[in-house]
Specification:
heterodimer, A: alpha/beta, B: Arc Repressor Mutant, subunit A, 11 helices, 42% helix
């Protein structure tokens, strides 16, 4: 059986766990613990190891979705997770500009790990204060050929569209059989 | 939809960059601890600015710029039946006190004074209201933002912010493809021109700094300005480079067949 993987990265509390939960066919395997930093943010648990989701295509092919830990002190995990990935999604909380700088750092770091395709999920577009994807593109300084997609991580259809767009970018670069 | 945030997280240079590149129209209000500034933009150009809800009025601006005397100012105020700047401007020109160019220069100087003050603010909440413009009677002087952004970035003193914006000096630069980015219309310093002359996807920022004997801080500050003004963008360097550190090695994508990805796409489409 062949397994392939996509990594879901993003700042703390951006919605990575919800993103994977919305599309995974299994309950997301999360290793979460009580948070010990970022005391001001209303989230009492955070992912310290990884989220793990699965989409089974058939008996011979499975896609795994790995979520990176949101807290900086676990960023040593990122290069392990990014090894051999097909591509990655950077989830950004569009309603919290205070996290954009971190999102940009994460994006640049993953771009350095691998030259694989990626998309940006402008999450929480259902919140009134959310910055539109096109403004987020400028805020994150990504070029016009990078897909910055409107997303609501709790909505399966929205997440499905983001994953599909990433797969379209991957297939464009994939070698012919 | 209004854009909201705090300058601690998204500074004035970044806000102006967003407004410039997105060609936004509307009003930006920034509230500091004891002052409030409102700046209006039309299609990405700065048109008016006011401090604490007062733009000084045309008479005040002209007097401040030395274009009219206190006595002329008093006479005009006494005789005019309007407070709209456009009508006042016509009265002043007809009375022979000022020329149209005096008015444009004075309004422009006032607007820039207010905006450059903003670049000293590091804290304050902001709110951008799309499509909100100054009143009909206001005199608006459109000013390109690129020069203002470059000037603002020259005033940056925070090393941590620059390092966070540009963590890796081994990235390269290339010019953006914006047809309206007219480099010749932007006032650049000699050092900025030197950096510009080395911009090429084959040259990393570190190499450019070395060639120009610039410190990490200086190259970051210059590149930050050029990026914010929308003149250049970051790219992975082309051609042979120094080997990256093992922990940051760029790995090639795994050899995955096209048919496999198409199966994945088919599956996700059917979900």
């Amino acid at each position: 059986m062949e397994t392939v993987k996509i990594v879901v990265a993003g700042p703390f509390n951006a919605g990575k766990t919800e993103f994977i939960s919305s599309i995974s066919e299994i309950d997301v395997v999360s290793t979460e613990q009580k948070i010990t930093d970022n005391p001001g943010v209303e989230k009492d648990q955070t992912t310290v190891a990884m989220d793990f989701g699965r989409i089974t295509v058939d008996k011979e092919l499975v896609l795994y979705l790995y979520g990176t830990p949101g807290q900086k002190r676990f960023d040593f995990m990122w290069d392990i997770l990014s090894e051999g990935m097909l591509g990655f999604v950077v989830v950004v909380d569009s309603a919290r500009p205070e996290t954009f700088r971190e999102a940009k750092t994460i994006l640049n770091r993953f771009r350095r790990y691998a030259t694989t395709p990626y998309v940006i999920a402008a999450n929480k577009q259902d919140i009134e204060d959310a910055w539109p994807p096109e403004d987020l593109r400028i805020a994150l300084r990504v070029s016009s050929n990078t897909k910055v997609l409107s997303c609501i991580a709790t909505d399966r259809e929205s997440v499905r569209r983001v994953v599909l767009e990433l797969l379209y970018s991957i297939v464009d670069l994939a070698p012919e059989d | 939809m209004a854009l909201k945030g705090n300058l601690k997280d998204f500074n004035v240079t970044q806000l102006f960059n967003l407004i410039n590149l997105a060609r936004k129209t509307g009003s930006l209000t920034i509230e500091g601890p004891d002052r409030k500034v409102e700046v209006c933009f039309k299609e990405g150009k700065l048109v008016t600015a006011s401090l604490n809800g007062q733009n000084g009025g045309l008479i005040g601006m002209l007097q401040k710029a030395g274009k009219i005397t206190a006595e002329q100012s008093r006479v005009v105020r006494d005789r005019s039946e309007t407070s709209a700047d456009k009508e006042l401007g016509l009265l002043l020109i007809n009375a022979g006190y000022v020329t149209q160019d005096d008015i444009v220069q004075s309004v422009r100087a006032h607007t820039l004074d207010v905006v450059y003050l903003l670049f000293t603010w590091t804290d304050g909440s902001f709110r951008f209201e799309p499509n909100r413009l100054p009143s009909e009677g206001a005199i608006t002087v459109p000013i390109n933002l690129e020069n203002i952004i470059m000037e603002g970035s020259r005033r940056v003193r925070e090393y941590e912010m620059l390092q966070s914006e540009l963590p890796h000096l081994d990235m390269a630069l290339r010019f953006t493809e914006r047809p309206d980015a007219k480099l010749r219309d932007i006032n650049l310093t000699v050092e900025e021109w030197r950096v510009i002359s080395f911009i090429n996807p084959r040259n990393t920022m570190r190499q450019i700094a070395k060639a120009n004997s610039m410190s990490d801080f200086k190259i970051r500050r210059i590149v930050y300005g050029l990026l914010s003004a929308g003149l250049v963008e970051l790219v992975m360097p082309e051609g042979p480079q120094e080997a990256p550190r093992v922990s940051e090695a760029v790995s090639a994508p795994p050899p995955v067949k096209r048919s496999l990805i198409l199966r994945l796409i088919d599956k996700v489409k059917r979900m």
